[in-house]
Design a protein that fits this description.
Shape: elongated
Order of helices and strands: HHH
Structural class: mainly alpha
Distance between the termini: 116 Å
Helix content: 55-70%
Number of strands: 0
Number of helices: 3
Number of domains: 1
Strand content: under 5%
Radius of gyration: 36 Å
Length: 118
């Protein structure tokens, strides 16, 4: 008899803990918040990787500028827009974007032109 009461008590406690766990995890602070944190962590890791690649690129660029005087001169001339004697600079207008074309006219809503009167 004591064995049956012990099993019943264990079963009741197990069901109570399982129910508590279920409702606790279903709350907004439970699994949805955990998923949101995982997504946020993944995004931050991607951002960190992109920043690390950019830092590496800039570090290599600085090393190249420090070791190569021709590269230094080219960079300075580009930043300050300087020309050597006899050089010519051409400034071209910006190209129009293809996605920004003029809006199409809907001729079905425009009334037909009035007949010409003589």
């Amino acid at each position: 008899m004591k064995k049956a009461i012990g099993r019943l008590a264990f079963l009741v406690i197990f069901i109570g803990v399982a129910t508590y766990g279920y409702f606790t995890l279903r709350r907004p602070q439970g699994i949805p918040a955990l998923r949101e944190k995982w997504t946020e962590i993944r995004k931050m890791e991607e951002d960190n990787a992109a920043l690390q690649r950019e830092n590496d690129y800039r570090r290599k660029r600085i090393e190249k500028l420090e070791s190569n005087p021709d590269e230094q001169e080219l960079e300075i001339r580009k930043k300050l827009k300087l020309l050597r004697p006899g050089e010519t600079s051409f400034i071209l207008p910006d190209q129009p974007k293809q996605g920004a074309a003029a809006p199409a006219h809907d001729d079905s809503k425009v009334p037909p032109p009035a007949p010409a009167q003589d």
